[in-house]
Structures are given as structure tokens and as C-alpha cells.
Design a protein that fits this description.
The complex is a heterodimer of chains A (646) and B (308). Chain A has 646 residues and is mostly helical. Helices cover 69% and strands 4% of the residues of chain A. Chain A is globular. Chain B is mainly alpha-helical and 308 residues long. In chain B, helix 1 crosses helix 9 and helix 5 runs antiparallel to helix 6. The longest helix of chain B has 32 residues. The chains are: A mainly alpha (646), B mainly alpha (308). The interface between A and B is large, with 88 and 87 residues. Strand 3 of chain A pairs parallel with strand 1 of chain B.
């Protein structure tokens, strides 16, 4: 594992050294990154059941020890797998940002980002963990800045602000845990002797600290802001794997605490809220990238539902539920990494081809970019959890966990598990609307803004290849779900010893596919039996009730969700304005959807901080003699304080 | 052998579905003091469609071509999930007969329906696609709440197993939560069949058929069969959980006939509701009436949570 880390570091430095030749640096940086991550993926997968330990030589800041167990190995595998696809994609894609930033820096940051994520997973010490965690945050913030432009610095500040809140909570939790355990090394933390109140406090701190990074509700506000600002390959990495690193840390640390059933309930509640709010905003958004970003919040919620089952199982000492819950959560983590990074890269393809993020301007892109479109279709089906792809497989396991969890007597467990199932089903219904709208308004129908779409071209093969690989993973994981669950249960069993994997009456995905294929044959048989008319299809204008057809007659992404936005108006603050000047002039319709939590929770705090900063600003006015005066006052105060109290 | 019964179940459903539709059309006509078409009219309509030529809008893509078959496959697979002619004794098929598979195949149906509507760029298709999605948003959670009660009550998501438990009598109407859930579930399944006051399957352009505005010829015929099949599945879904006693007949073919007759009975009885109400707009009417169904389902859930 040292080799992999060193190689990433060297590639990062090498591409930075080629500062003067950005195009070459881009080729070398991203090319090498894909090779190393492919090697890393194979390496981590093959040593899934080993424990690797690595020490930095010498007494380098408090003995940083790096340790990978089965869970860490699984997440490292996930990071390198997605990094492989994304860097292969960036090999060509990064050129799009040639004018905005130096590509050598981009490539260097990209490698450093992968490295920092791998190191965060491996670090086994509070100090090195916090340091690397912050390094990871900073590098991702710099990656956001690659796409410099209007408002970029404000967006980065929002991202960093939420990250700081998280890091603060995380730091507090880890230091308390370390002081109780009497050591800074995570592997020696076991059996913390603390009561219920302290555990719940620590758990909440960890949840806020790491959940804010994972995009959990109500810390989801940075997701659309940061991801829309980012280049698509960086947002694919951030959403695909950085979120998973936070979840990994969450699982790792909260397992060190004594377990209570309430951990599970908290997670189920947070998960249910995250899924519902995430998908509502994803549905209302007209910006496809923001919509995909909001759906990250939704998927993190779904993962939390699985984890909630797992922690509940640990809390009540029921290994069956715990095992199933962890398998469900890990399965969805894997799947979300695959299809979310795929979707972000696809959105990058669409953006480079059309230069707009507005769904109302697009349409009919399938004819221009057929392969991108078909891959997008696969990804959309997968993220909507429709059979027979991977999203359905993992959501099924999550449903199963919650059904089993809700059987027990006890009002609390029944209440929270049913809440989880209902939230998941509402999410399912809305995800279908959100993604059918997204796919439909980007790729189907007729171009609304012909200027954008007309010049769109299919992207190069080297960008389609990684997308194709991830899309086939979506299909493959779905079809072989039972084998994947077998592998995952081996990983998960290291978390909960003294249990054995048992069969839960899993569904059989190949059977679903076979039955669906057989069913698809029946219409052909019918057509043959009744000698249907097979004449060629005549092509006409779409029917418009006798009026002359106009492309603006087709449904827009706004009106598509109009009814549901009205029904949910108590959650979604949206303003609409209709201007009609006269019968012959064009009517203007504008709509704005506000993130309620941004306005009610964040904006007041930010305004207050700005106000305070403004007031404090008087002190810093650039006059040197005044500054000398401050020092004088401070000295006097110290002297007085010292004289009386020391 | 199980696969043979599965095929028999599917084929017989496809064969009789248009008949039920014909009977309900005739009955509706009688209510409205019309003579009405013959009860075999739906067969004739489908046959006529198969023989017609087709046109398509120039905006359409591959989605337009594959969607009739995907819609049919998902509707037919949904019907296959219902363990009518097979039971939990069939090891292979009971790994297929799962409540969530049925629900998410229905979601696949809805997804393809919406996407196919948008693909044609037809204004009415777009509006009805939006309506279809919104309707799904209203119905899905009520159906799931009712099913949660059943699934947690029996401790399984396997439909064949649940049906078997209820047939044996070890779970069922003795539990108040189950009997309350039955009401709400029937309500939702009625909404899913696309009848007034929630939908009008054959008439206005912005409703259910609006999505199919650009479809014609054999494509429309296939989609029509798929929709009929989906409606039968929804009623069958209610029957297999809440009235599963047709399965007690030992002979699978006989129990299949009995079950299809039950579905037909419910389908035709729907006319009585269908005929005596206005149609609702999505936001006012449906929201208001679905709140009742939601309240009923939540009552059953509360009963379950309290352990009654």
C-alpha cells in the first residue's frame, strides 16, 4: 500500500513540475492517475481479507500509523475504482478547463485529492486523521476553484464553512474519545467505558461532524453550490467517493462507542429526512447538475436508513439485523459511488457539448449524442432503483432490513422503521419523476434552445469508455447481486464477530431478467399470430390539437413538476411571476425555488456573522499608531490582571 | 411445471383482460342509457389497431420504439409476481414473488410511461406524463403503508409466503390493523386502475391516454394490453393479500380460473364508482380524497405500532 501512496504523491508532484507545459502535464497526470488507481483497485480488492499496517519512518509528528483492515480495504477499493474511471474520463475532459486554470495544477490537485482520501481511510491516529481530513477538505476546495468565475469564491466559502462546522464537531468528539481511552490510536480505543448520555452526545457530534461532509440533511446546502461550481470530474470524485470516506469514518468511529438502540433511531430519523428533502429539491431544480447534487443528499439518507438498521441491531444485540443492515448500507454505498459518479461525468459531457446547465434550454440531445444518452438512461434507471439494475438490488436489501427490524415488539422500533420504509417509498416515487424529467428534458423531445443543441457533438471515445465501464458495472452488480452480497457479508462480518452469514431468502435477479425477457417475447408472438401491419412508419409533426406545432409547446421541466410543487408548497417555497402585457406580446413566466433551510437556517447566521464582522472591522483601519495603542491597552490589562490575580 | 403454470397464468390473463374491459364498457353504457358496444368490442379494437399503419412524430428516438415492449414486459412481469397458479412450494419462483419486486416493476412501468410521453414532444403527452408521476406520488406511499402493516405483521416480504400464511389463517382479519389496511389498499388499487374520479382511461387527452397521443397501430395495441394487464395486476395484488382464498382450491388451474373471475368481478364493479362521480383535477380533488385514504392507512399503521 505504501507503493500506491508514493506513486500518487510522485504523480502529483510530477504534474506540478510540468507547470510550464499544461497539456503534457494533463496527459501525464491523469493518465498515470488512471493506471495507478487501476493497480490500486486490483490490489485493495485482492487483499480484502488482510490487515496491512504501515508506519512512517522516524519519529515524524506523533508516530503516524496507517492501518487498513477489511472495511478500510473495501473503501480504499471503492476510492480507487471510481478514481480509475474518473481519471480516465478526465484524460480528455480536463482540456475543457484549459482557459480557466492551469491544467498541470488541475492534474496535480486531482492526484493529491485521491491520495488524501486514501490516507484518511488508512490513518489510525487522531492527529493524522484530523490533519489529513482537513487537507482533503482544502484540496477539494481548490478543485472547486478550478472552475473560477463569478461567485466562485463565495461558493467555496460556503463549502468550507460547512466543512469547518463539521470538523469542529469531529475534533471535539475525537478528543473526548481519546481522553477517555487514554490513547490517540483508534485501534486501541476499544471498549470505551462511558454511559448512555455521553455516548449519545459523542454519537451526535460524530453524526454532525461527518454527516455534514456526507451531505446529510440539514447540512446539504453546500452540495448543489459546490458541485455545480466544480468541474464535473471533480464533482464525480467528491460525490462518488469523498462522501463515502466521511461515511467510512462515521461507521469506524461510532462503532468504537458502546452501542444503544437509540443510535439506530437517530440514524433512521436523519436518513428519512435526508431522503425526502434531498429528493424534493432534486425534483424542483431546473439545473441538472444541481438536481444530481441534491440527489446525493437523498442517497446518503438511504444509506443512513441501512446503517440505522445496523446500529439498531447492534444496540439490541441482534446480529441478524446488524449484519443485514451493514450489508445493505455497504451495498448502497458501492452502488451510489458507481451511478453517482457516472451521472456527474455524464452531466460533464452534456455541459461541454451544450454549455448550459438549464434543462429548459435543452432537449432532443439523443440525436446528437446517442451513446451518452443511452448510458444516461442506464444510470437514471439505476438511480431510480428500478429492476433489474443495481439500485434496486441495494434498496431491496434496505427494505428487507427495515421490515425485519420493525417486527420486534416495542413502539419505538416499529415507529422508526415504518417511518424509514415510508420515507424510502416516497423517495422512490419522486426519484422516478425527478430522473424521468431530467432524462426526458435533456435527451428527448425537440431542442428548446436550438443554439445550444445544434452544435452539440458526441464526445470522444476515451471519455465514453469509462462511462461504459461504469454503466456495465451498474448492470453487472445488479445481475450478480447475490454474489456481491456474499463478498460484502465477508467484509461486514469483521465488524460484528461471533456471527455467521445466513441466507435471508434473497431475491434472484437473474430470474427477474429471464421472466421479463420471456414476457417481452409475448408481444412479438401476438404480432406474428395476428399478422400485424409492419409497414414503415410515417414521420409527421407532433399532434397539437390542430394548431401549428411549435417546439415551445412541449412540456418544460418547470411545468412538469408544477402540480407536485403546488402540493408540496409548504416545504418548497417557490415564487412564480407571470407577466402578460397584451394578447399579442409574449407572456413571461419566471419561477424561483428557494431552499427553505438555506433561508431559515443559514442565511440568518451568515447575516449575523457579516454584521458582527462589519462592526469589528472598525478596529482594523490601517493606522499604525492605533495598533500600537491596542498593544498598550493589552499590556496594561495583562499587568492589572497579573497584579491582582496571579 | 411451475413455469408452465406461470405461463398459463399470464396467457389466460392476457386473453380475458379485454373481455372484462368490454363487459365494464357495456355496463357503463347501460348506466348512461346507451346501447353500448358488444362485450367483445375491446378485442375488435385491439385487432383493428394491429392492422393499422403507423405515424410517429419526428422528435421520437429509440425510446418510442422500445417503450411498448418494455411497458408490456414490466406489466406482464408484475402479473407473474402474483402467486396465483404457483405457491411457496415452488422454490425458484418464490424467490421472484416479492412485494418490492412488484412495486418497483410498477415504478419501471411508470418511468417508461413518462419517458415515452416526453419523447414524442406532444404537449398533451407531456402534461399527462406529469400527471402520471404526480398520481404515483399520491398513491405509492399509501400502498406502502398498508403493505408495511402486512409485511411486518407476517415478517416477510415474500408474497407467496404471506398469501400462504393468510390462507392458513395464522395471520389475517383477526388483526385489526390488517382489516383496516385492506380498506385503504383497495382504495389505492382502484386509483391505480385509472378510473374516474381519478383518471379516465379512454377519453380526454391530458389524462392517462394523453401519454399515448402519438402512439398508433401495433404499438398502441401492445401498450393497451399492457395497461389492461397492469390494471388486473393491481386488483390481483389486493386480492392475493386480502382475499386469497381462491388459492385454497387444490387444482392450480381451477384456482386460477376462480382468481381471474374475482379480478373480473372487481374490475366490473369498479363501474359503479366510476359512473357516479365527477373527475378530479390533480391538485384539488385527488389531494383531498387521497387524504382520506392516507388517514385510513395511517390508522392501520398506528394500530400495528401499538401492537393491537
Amino acid at each position: 500500500m505504501q507503493t500506491i501512496y508514493t506513486l500518487f504523491l510522485l504523480t502529483s508532484l510530477l504534474s506540478l513540475a510540468l507547470y510550464k507545459k499544461p497539456l503534457l502535464a494533463q496527459r501525464i497526470g491523469f493518465g498515470l492517475a488512471s493506471l495507478i488507481s487501476l493497480y490500486a483497485a486490483v490490489f485493495f480488492f485482492s487483499s480484502l481479507d488482510e490487515i496491512l499496517i504501515w508506519k512512517l519512518p522516524g519519529n515524524f509528528i506523533s508516530l503516524p500509523l496507517f492501518r487498513l483492515d477489511a472495511i478500510g480495504m473495501f473503501f480504499s477499493f471503492l476510492v480507487s475504482l471510481i478514481a480509475f474511471a474518473v481519471s480516465l474520463f478526465s484524460f480528455d475532459y480536463a482540456k475543457f478547463y484549459e482557459k480557466k486554470a492551469n491544467l498541470a495544477v488541475f492534474a496535480s490537485l486531482f492526484n493529491a485529492f485521491i491520495l488524501s482520501m486514501l490516507l484518511v481511510i488508512a490513518s489510525d491516529n487522531v492527529f493524522s486523521f484530523m490533519l489529513l481530513w482537513e487537507v482533503m477538505t482544502l484540496i477539494s476546495a481548490l478543485l472547486i476553484l478550478i472552475n473560477d468565475g463569478e461567485g466562485a469564491s463565495k461558493n467555496v466559502m460556503i463549502y468550507l464553512g460547512v466543512a469547518q462546522i463539521g470538523a469542529f464537531c469531529l475534533m471535539v468528539a475525537l478528543i473526548i474519545m481519546a481522553s477517555i481511552a487514554g490513547t490517540f490510536e483508534f485501534s486501541k480505543f476499544a471498549d470505551l467505558n462511558i454511559g448512555f448520555g455521553m455516548s449519545i452526545t459523542l454519537f451526535t457530534l460524530l453524526l454532525v461532524g461527518l454527516g455534514s461532509k456526507a451531505g446529510m440533511f440539514p447540512f446539504h446546502v453546500w452540495l448543489p453550490i459546490a458541485y455545480c461550481q466544480c468541474p464535473s470530474n471533480a464533482s464525480a470524485l467528491m460525490s462518488g467517493v469523498m462522501i463515502k470516506v466521511a461515511l467510512f469514518a462515521f461507521i469506524k468511529f461510532s462503532l468504537l462507542l458502546p452501542q444503544f438502540a437509540w443510535f439506530g433511531y437517530i440514524l433512521l430519523l436523519v436518513g428519512a429526512l435526508s431522503c425526502i428533502f434531498g429528493i424534493i429539491y432534486a425534483l424542483a431544480s431546473n439545473d441538472y447538475k444541481a438536481s444530481i447534487a441534491y440527489s446525493s443528499c437523498e442517497n446518503v439518507g438511504i444509506i443512513f436508513l441501512g446503517l440505522g438498521g445496523a446500529f439498531y441491531g447492534l444496540g439490541i444485540n441482534s446480529p441478524t439485523i446488524a449484519l443485514l443492515g451493514f450489508i445493505a448500507a455497504f451495498f448502497h454505498i458501492l452502488n451510489h459511488a458507481v451511478f453517482k459518479s457516472l451521472l456527474f461525468m455524464l452531466s460533464g459531457n452534456v455541459f461541454t457539448a451544450t454549455n448550459t446547465r438549464d434543462m429548459d434550454a435543452l432537449g432532443g440531445l439523443h440525436k446528437k449524442m446517442p451513446i451518452t444518452s443511452i448510458i444516461f438512461f442506464v444510470a437514471a434507471i439505476s438511480i431510480c432503483a428500478l429492476p433489474p439494475l443495481n439500485g434496486f438490488a441495494s434498496e431491496w436489501v434496505i427494505y428487507k432490513t427495515m421490515v425485519i427490524g420493525g417486527i420486534d415488539e416495542g413502539v419505538a422500533s416499529r415507529f422508526f422503521f415504518t417511518l424509514g420504509i415510508i420515507a424510502l417509498s416516497i423517495t422512490g416515487a419522486m426519484a422516478i419523476m425527478a430522473f424521468s424529467k431530467m432524462y426526458g428534458s435533456i435527451f428527448l423531445g425537440i431542442a428548446r434552445d436550438t443554439k445550444c443543441v445544434e452544435e452539440a457533438k458526441e464526445v470522444s471515445f476515451s471519455r465514453l469508455l469509462p462511462l461504459g465501464l461504469l454503466a456495465s458495472l451498474c448492470v453487472g452488480i445488479g445481475v450478480f447481486m447475490n454474489d456481491v452480497i456474499g463478498v460484502l457479508s465477508k467484509v461486514v462480518l469483521t465488524l460484528i464477530p461471533q456471527t455467521t452469514a445466513s441466507a435471508y431468502g434473497l431475491i434472484s435477479m437473474p430470474l427477474i431478467i429471464i421472466i421479463m425477457l420471456l414476457c417481452a417475447i409475448i408481444p412479438f408472438v401476438l404480432l406474428y399470430l395476428f399478422k400485424a401491419n409492419h409497414k414503415e412508419v410515417r414521420v409527421t409533426e407532433p399532434w397539437a390539437c390542430g394548431f401549428l406545432y411549435n417546439k415551445s409547446m412541449q412540456i418544460g421541466s418547470n411545468s412538469f413538476t408544477g402540480d407536485i410543487r403546488k402540493a408540496l408548497s409548504f416545504l418548497l417555497k417557490h415564487e412564480q411571476e407571470i407577466k402578460i402585457d397584451g394578447y399579442f406580446s409574449k407572456a413571461v413566466y419566471t419561477k424561483k425555488t428557494h431552499d427553505l433551510f438555506w433561508e431559515k437556517l443559514y442565511a440568518p447566521v451568515i447575516d449575523f456573522v457579516m454584521l458582527v464582522a462589519d462592526k469589528i472591522g472598525i478596529f482594523q483601519n490601517g493606522r499604525t499608531n492605533l495598533y500600537a495603542g491596542y498593544i498598550l491597552i493589552y499590556l496594561c490589562l495583562v499587568l492589572i490582571f497579573g497584579y491582582y490575580y496571579l | 411445471m411451475d413455469f408452465f403454470y406461470l405461463l398459463l397464468q399470464l396467457v389466460s390473463a392476457i386473453v380475458v383482460a379485454p373481455l372484462f374491459d368490454g363487459i365494464s364498457r357495456k355496463l357503463r353504457a347501460k348506466f348512461q342509457s346507451r346501447v353500448g358496444p358488444s362485450i367483445f368490442q375491446t378485442y375488435r379494437d385491439l385487432f383493428k389497431l394491429l392492422k393499422r399503419g403507423r405515424t410517429k412524430s419526428h422528435s421520437t428516438s429509440y425510446i418510442y420504439q422500445i417503450s411498448p415492449y418494455v411497458l408490456f414486459a414490466s406489466a406482464a412481469a408484475m402479473f407473474c409476481v402474483l402467486p396465483i397458479a404457483y405457491g411457496p412450494s415452488s422454490v425458484a419462483l418464490s424467490r421472484f414473488s416479492d412485494i418490492f419486486i412488484l412495486l418497483y416493476l410498477g415504478a419501471l412501468f411508470r418511468f417508461m410511461f413518462i419517458v415515452a410521453g416526453i419523447d414524442t414532444a406532444n404537449p398533451f403527452a407531456g402534461i399527462s406524463a406529469s400527471r402520471e408521476g404526480t398520481l404515483g406520488f399520491y398513491t405509492e406511499e399509501i400502498a406502502v403503508i398498508c403493505l408495511v402493516v402486512v409485511m411486518m405483521g407476517t415478517g416477510s416480504t415474500n408474497l407467496a409466503y404471506i398469501t400462504n400464511l393468510i390462507q392458513e389463517g395464522s395471520y389475517g382479519y383477526a388483526f385489526p390493523s390488517f382489516s383496516v389496511a385492506a380498506t385503504a389498499f383497495l382504495w389505492v388499487m382502484y386509483v391505480e386502475t385509472g378510473r374516474k374520479p381519478y383518471d379516465l382511461a379512454e377519453a380526454e387527452q391530458e389524462l392517462q391516454e394523453g401519454v399515448l397521443g402519438e402512439y398508433c397501430g401495433k404499438d398502441l395495441a401492445i401498450i393497451d394490453i399492457a395497461i389492461l394487464l397492469k390494471q388486473m395486476t393491481m386488483l390481483g395484488f389486493f386480492l392475493i393479500i386480502f382475499v386469497p382464498w381462491a388459492g385454497l382450491v387444490a387444482n392450480p388451474i381451477l384456482s386460477l380460473i376462480l382468481f381471474l373471475a374475482e379480478i373480473g368481478f372487481l374490475y366490473i364493479m369498479g363501474v359503479f364508482i366510476d359512473n357516479f362521480g365527477p373527475r378530479f383535477t390533480v391538485n384539488n380533488g385527488i389531494k383531498r380524497t387521497m387524504l382520506f385514504a392516507l388517514a385510513i392507512s395511517c390508522t392501520s399503521l398506528v394500530l400495528y405500532i401499538m401492537g393491537i
